[in-house]
Write a structure and sequence with these properties.
The protein is mostly beta strands. The strands form 11 sheets. Strands 3, 4, 5, 6 and 7 form a 5-stranded antiparallel sheet that branches. A 5-stranded mixed sheet has the order 12-13-14-15-19, with no helix packed on it. It has a 5-stranded mixed sheet with strand order 35-39-32-31-42, with no helix packed on it. The longest helix is centred in the N-terminal third of the chain and has 4 residues. The chain is globular, with a radius of gyration of 23 Å. The two termini are 26 Å apart. The N terminus is likely disordered. Keywords: Signal. This is Glucose/arabinose dehydrogenase. InterPro entries: 6-blade_b-propeller_TolB-like, CBD2, CBM2/CBM3_carb-bd_dom_sf, CBM2_carb-bd_dom_sf, Glc/Sorbosone_DH, Quinoprot_gluc/sorb_DH_b-prop.
């Protein structure tokens, strides 16, 4: 993980941002695993490794099939592992409804806490759900919601057999109605993890992200199976800030803006976080087990890879670098964090691959570790409009819900040969570089008019181009055909290129789409 660490530095110019220089720090200590956790659920236990796919990401297409209609602003999915094949679907108004593949969506909710939920504002409401690991026996589950009367972000236990709501922990959140987070997930350690945003509005008005005396802008880790003193829960003794003066012991990670959806990979205990950006960058973070406790994800010193607020930066703090950032120039507006696929049906295609999307662009992002400390990435299709959350069945298959018009969709994956292949060559010097790109039509039909889209490394700025009409917005480049090379017959190629300046990173682009189809890349 040392390659995913960076440090704050002096304020950088907006036109040519730089990454901070690497500084050696001692990583956060690994959290101890409670002895009650089954050994097979913990990475390194000697259990057989789950199957990981080797199919190139650009050869994968994600598709969806709508299976239920008529949901009212659904925002989360949970699947009880009790042999019933049910899905629990959270509606923002304060209800939970049941879907079964044989009988469809039940009309009446199985849970209704609307009398306790503050629904004012677009982002308030019932936001998250997690089923107790022993749900099949206890029928206990946990809910995150904004509570009446003033919108406090609240965690509660719900006893399904008794229809009883028991608030456990809350964080005041009265000033603004956005950035409530709300993800709930049980970890492989048996503890409950919960996210809350930075307090809302814009620009982290309370400087919550870097403060340790508030739960705003954090992911928490608590033990909901016991009570400790006046608390309705216990704080694990190996939480990173236990015993620190002025710090909340519940905090597991900090420096987050609005971690609307995160997940924990059951195969290795690593955490994947989709942190919604301010306006320039959406980001996905991946933290391995043993690197999570006390991790600082940067907000509001950083947004993505760029300095956002120099006043929030400290030279003695270790920040965690995101594994993917993308700009709203893609049409995106809010990253929707997903899951690592661990099912059986599509294991040969996407086993071990993390899948996420964006609320506005509906782009499906696929990320896979490359075995060398980096990540392969590709855009592999589109989701329905306005997806708000992913969910998995007990067998690891994927579903998503979308906000408006309110539906449940089953996610599938298929293999399809890419319709384009790119060969890249580069010459770099000092602060400059040239890149030549050969675009080959590997499909079976002519391409009449093309649009190639790809991101540059931060600090790279296009100065000129040839054989194309090229524009750059943020770090995203769009290259369109010239009049004389608009048509590419099957098996034929065209060549384009550009001259760019750089601020130290002269790496080549790694992710391309041609007319929205992912391209294979060689160099």
């Amino acid at each position: 993980m040392s390659g995913n660490r960076w440090a704050a530095r002096a304020l950088l110019t907006l036109s040519l941002p730089l990454l901070a220089p690497a500084i050696a720090f001692t990583p956060p200590a690994a959290a101890a695993t409670p002895p009650s956790v089954p050994a097979a659920s913990v990475a390194g236990s000697g259990a057989p490794a789950p199957r990981a796919a080797t199919v190139p990401l650009e050869e994968i297409n994600a598709t969806t099939t709508q299976v239920a209609f008529g949901l009212r602003r659904p925002v989360a999915i949970a699947a009880p592992d009790d042999g019933t094949n049910r899905l629990f679907i959270v509606e923002k108004r304060g209800t939970v409804r049941v879907y079964h593949p044989d009988t469809g969506l039940a009309q009446d909710p199985i849970i209704d806490i609307t009398a306790s939920v503050d629904q004012s504002g677009n982002e308030r409401g019932l936001l998250g759900i997690a089923l107790a690991p022993d749900f099949a026996q206890s029928h206990n589950l946990y809910l995150a919601y904004t509570a009446l009367p003033a919108g406090a972000v609240t965690l509660a236990r719900y006893r399904l057999n008794e229809a009883r709501l028991e608030p456990l922990l809350s964080q005041e959140h009265a000033e603004y109605d956005n950035h409530n987070g709300g993800q709930l997930t049980f970890g492989t350690d048996g503890y409950l993890y919960w996210s809350i945003g930075d307090g809302g509005a814009a620009g982290d008005p309370f400087d919550s992200g870097q403060r340790l005396d508030t739960l705003l802008g954090k992911i928490m880790r608590i033990d909901v199976n016991r009570r400790c003193g006046s608390l309705a829960y216990c704080i694990p003794s190996d939480n990173p800030f236990v015993g620190r003066a002025g710090a909340r012991g519940e905090i597991w990670m900090y420096g987050l803006r609005n971690p609307w959806r995160f997940s924990i990979d059951r195969a290795d205990g690593s955490m994947w976080i989709g942190d919604v950006g301010q306006g320039r960058w959406e980001e996905i973070d991946h933290l391995k087990a043993g690197r999570q406790a006390g991790a600082n994800l940067g907000w509001s010193c950083y947004e993505g890879l760029e300095i956002f607020d120099q006043a929030q930066c400290r030279s003695d703090v270790q920040y965690t670098k995101p594994v993917l950032t993308y700009t709203p120039y893609t049409g995106g507006c809010a990253v929707i964090g997903g899951h690592v696929y661990r099912g059986e049906q599509f294991a040969d295609l996407v086993g071990g691959t993390y899948i996420a999307t964006d609320y506005c662009s509906s782009t499906v992002w696929a990320l896979r570790e490359d075995g060398r400390g980096g990540y392969l990435q590709a855009e592999i299709g589109e989701m329905p409009t306005q997806v708000t959350a992913f969910g998995t069945t007990p067998r690891g298959e994927f579903y998503v819900v979308n906000d408006l018009p309110g539906g449940l969709h089953r996610v599938s994956f298929e293999r399809a040969a890419p319709t384009c292949r790119l060969k890249l060559t580069k010459q770099a010097w000092g602060t400059g570089m040239t890149v030549d790109i050969t675009i080959t039509n590997t499909g079976t039909t002519p391409i009449d008019g093309w649009r190639l889209v790809f991101p540059l490394a931060l600090g790279q700025t296009v100065i000129s181009d040839w054989n194309t009409d090229l524009t750059q917005g943020s770090n995203l480049v769009t290259a369109t055909n010239a009049t004389y090379n608009a048509s590419i017959s099957p098996g034929r190629s065209v060549s384009i290129g550009y001259l760019a300046s750089h601020t130290g990173d002269a790496s080549l682009p790694t992710r391309f789409t041609l007319n929205k189809d992912a391209c294979a890349v060689t160099s």
